[in-house]
Structure formats: structure tokens, C-alpha cells
Amino acid sequence: MSISTPVGTPYAERAADLVAGADQDQWGSVGPSLYETARVLSAAPWLPGEPRRITYLLDQQAPDGSWGDGPPPYRLLPTLSAVEAALAVLQRGAASAEVTGRLTAAVDRGLGALRSLPPAGPWPDTAAAEILVPGLVAGINEKLDSPASGGGDMPGSGGPRLPVPGGFHGSAPARVAGRYESAGSLPVKYHHTFEGIAGFVPPSLVPDAEGLLGSSPAATAARAARSPAATARAVADLSAVAGRYDGLFPEAAPLRVVERLWVAAALARAHLPAAALATVREWAEDIYDPRGVRGAPGLMTDADDTAMAVLVASLVGLPHGPAPLDLFHNGSHYDCYIGEDTGSVTANAHALQALVSHLRRSPEAQHTHGPRAAKLSDWLADQQHPEGHWTDKWHASPYYATARSVTALAQYGGEHASRAVHRAAKWTTGTQRADGSWGVWGSTVEETAYAVKVLLGAGAPTPRHARALDLAETYLHNASHPGRRHSGGRYPDPRHPALWHDKTLYAPAAVIDAEVLSAQELLRARRTAACTEADTERTHA
Fold first, then answer.
1. Contact criterion met (CB below 8 Å) for 1 and 516
2. Which terminus of the chain is less hemmed in, N or C, by CB atoms within 10 Å?
3. Measured between alpha carbons, how far is 85 from 91 in angstroms, rounded to an integer?
């Protein structure tokens, strides 16, 4: 665990330390984003610290020429971003001869990696990929067709132009911008990914908002490039983030709302220690909003963060009901936000948890929220894949979506929900790795924690479930090392692969730490209960 106290320290102390770290960190425990840093490098040559960003871009290139985390389809967008940014620096002609040579080689290798990707995916459902990918392809091709500084050719200019990958449409950015130009305003949902359409919107549609546009450094830099009057403000806002990330940039800043809600809910699954309860109550009181909750400044209010705020408020005994969720209800379940293109299983699982928790505390609300919970439970169970798992657009791993769905359905109960839970438990035991772990691409403590919660949520364990949990407990114990420090959430634990979806993959370290810590505590409590039961049976024998 990447917290300061040793692994053998009791749960309450470790949990309190994790809550204190999240409380003190005003930014959130996510690391720099290659995609976002490259976008700022390309769009903001006026921002101090460019040499650091160039070095980072060069150092992060993989041996195969690509950039980013995860399997090849996930590396499409960060590689496009890096290649376009390197070409932008070369076009400006301000780099030294040595750096120019390295950038030229990086572009050549990056173009090779892009051309070797599957031509038609399938591509991950990451944020606004439908406009970001074709926009970057167009930007790269435009630069390849332009002379480099001094009149020479750009690297890669002699080869074929990059095609728009199958499944994307080159006209998408212009089409989206044109749709809202005729409407006279740009929806807030496009603020976070404004860089994808910035070149197509008229000056009248360039958003004017305080702080980072849509919490995104890339969007903020793109706005400044389209509106020179915003440059001075962008320098101040981006410099503050760069100071936190050593000249680099995350995909969203600050991310403290998401981090605090998810940390609190994860720890509450085991139990919130007394030393952390007051802090979590302060978080819940501060974050809950009857108008809906947004995950970061400048984002839209959304059902996921709103549901988690309702849930955490209920768990710590605050009198805040689920009325804000009404904003997102569509008749059968909840849309993440107004104007959503694809739905979210986990947002609805969180909403069901929030409704169940509220109904347990306030049975008199059954006549208003009971029917909605029943309908939501059926909808969630119906989203289960035939194999027994769930998937979701906010996370690459099915174990995250499955754990969230099982937790919600098990808490709600009923025959339909119970059948879904049992199918999920069967799928989970069947996908455990030989070392006791789980993982969609490889063994991870994060996904193992989710799988543990699936099996524990299924009720009385079968012998096969019990064996799987024993193996998982050993794996989590061996994977957790004493002496790791919690650096105030400054950077994610390198043992946590990036699995969470935004524009690209990221890893919220404090959230993952809380999930793993609570899973370990639940396993410890299970083992203690089994030992107590065995002692009782021997006493009465």
C-alpha cells in the first residue's frame, strides 16, 4: 500500500492515514498525462517550462514507437497527441540541434507505430475520442504538408498521410462545432475536451470561464490559442498546475471531489474509523449539492458524482436525500449527464446503492423512492453480460463494473438481483489467476480487491469461493510492502497500472489504495470470524 504506515499496522490507523492524506492534497492523487502534457506543449509555446515537457515526451516513448498506457488500441490517442506535439515543436524551430534530432527520430518511430495499429480497432470508449482522434490526425497531416523551420522537410513528409482510423469520421470535429455555432452556444459537456473542436468554433463560441476550462489543461491551452485575451489568465492557471506536477499536466485538475467520495465509500465498505469520520463528514457536507454534483470544477453535474455524494452523506448520517438524482432520471435508470451519448452501469450501481442506503435510514420514503429502486435494480441486472460480468465506460476492467453492480444488487436483494449476483460470483471464481489475483491485462491489486468484493457480496461462500478468497488474501498480503510512503497523493503508486477512463487511461492512487485496504480488512474480518466459529464448535464438541 502506498500509505505511510506499515502493512502490519491495524486497519483503522492505515485508513485514517489515507483519509488525512486525501484531505491534505488539494489536487488529487493522479499522475501526469502524456496526452494532456503533449496538448499543452503543442498549443502553449508561451508557457514557461517547455524544455521539461519536451524531455518528458521523449522519455515516455515506448520501444515500439508508441506512447501511453494499456494495450495498442488505448495507445492510439496518446501517440497521436505526442506525434502532433513533436511536429509542432519542430515547426516552431526553437529547439536545439540535439533536441531537434531526437524529436525527428521520435516522430518517425511514432508514425510507424500509428501505421501498425489495427486499421479499425476496436477502440476504447474514452472521453470524446470521436472528435479528438480525427482532429489530431488532421493536425498531423497538416504539419506533414508544411515546411519545417528553415524551409526543410518535416520528418515523415515523404510518406503517406495518416488515414483516419476505421470507426472515426474526419468530419466529426467540424460537424460538432457547426451544430453548436448555429445554436449560438457550446454545451458545457464540450469544455473538458474543447481542444478537439477549438479550431472549428468561431470566437463567439470560445468559452469564458474561471480557472481551467473544464478542469482540463489541454482545453485551457486550446482556449488561449483561440482567444489571445485569455492567454495571461491561462499562464497563471496552467502554471499553478505545472508547479504541482513538475512542469507536466494531468487530465483533470483538481480531482479532489472524485477522490474523496470514492475513498470514503471504499473505506466505509469495511468501516470508517473514528479518527476519519469527522473528516469524511466534512467532505460529505461540503460536496453534497441539491443542484447536482460535479467531479471537478468546470465539468457538468453528473449522476455518478451526485449518487456517490448522496451515498457517502447517508453512510455518515447526514440528512441529505437522493432528490438531486432526479435531475438525471430518464424513466428506467439514470443518465450520467444531460446530453450523454453512452450510458454507465457503474453510475447506476452507485445510484442504486444511494437509494438503498437512504431507504434503510428513512423507510417512510419507500412510497417515493422504492419503485424507482426496484426498476433500477431490474435495469442493472439486465445489463449483465451472458458470461456473468458487467462492463462500463469509466473503467477498462470488468472487475470494477462487476464489483459495483454486485454490491448494489446484493444490497437491494430480490430474486432477479440474486440470480445476477450468483452468476457474477461464478464468473469471478472462474477468471482467477493462478497466483490468486485477477486482472484484465495482468495481475493487479486493484482488480483483485474488486473481485474479492464480488465474492464477499455473493453471501455465504461456497468451498470454491472460500478457496478463491484465501488465495486472494495471500496475494494481496504479498503484494503489499512495508515502508512505502504516501506522498500526499502526489503521484500514483507505480504498482497501480492505469485502468480508469478519461481521455486516456489514468490511475487515481488514493482511490485504489482505499479499495485494496478495505478488501484486506474485509478478508481479515472473514478469517477472524471463521476462527471464532471454529473455536466455538470445538468448545461445544
1. yes
2. C
3. 10
Alpha helix positions (H), 363-502: 366-382, 398-412, 415-430, 445-457, 463-479
Distance separating alpha carbons of residues 110 and 68, to the nearest angstrom:
12
End-to-end Cα, the chain, rounded Å: 41
Q: Do the beta carbons of residue 407 and residue 455 sit within 8 Å? A: no
Tell the residue number behind the cell numbers 438525471, with chain if given: 328
User: CA 216, 218, 223, 224 torsion: positive or negative?
Assistant: positive
CA distance 153 to 336: 47
Exposed, middle or buried, 430 (CB in 10 Å: 0-12/13-18/19+)?
exposed
What span, in angstroms and rounded, lies between the C-alpha atoms of 429 and 438? 9
Side-chain-side CA neighbours of 141 within 13 Å: the count stands at 12
444 phi and psi angles, rounded to 5 deg: -140, 150
Do 346 and 392 touch, CB atoms closer than 8 A?
yes
- For the full predicted model, state whether its pTM sits above 0.85: yes
- Residues paired with residue 294 on neighbouring β-strands, in sequence order: 301
Grid cell of 374 as nine digits? 426496484
As a whole number of angstroms, the distance between CA 310 and CA 390 comes to 23
Place of cell 489495427: 118
Backbone angles phi, psi at 339, to 5 degrees: 90, 15
pLDDT along the chain (541 residues), means of 10: 48 95 94 97 97 98 97 97 97 93 96 93 94 98 82 74 95 94 89 96 89 96 91 94 96 96 97 94 98 95 98 96 95 88 92 97 93 97 98 97 98 97 97 97 97 94 92 93 40 72 97 97 89 61 56
Query: What does the block give as the cell for 389?
Result: 460480468
Rounded alpha-carbon distances, angstroms, from residue 255 to 17, 22, 165, 242, 298: 19, 11, 31, 15, 11
Contacts of 287 by beta carbon, 8 Å cutoff, 6+ apart: 257, 260, 261, 293, 309, 312
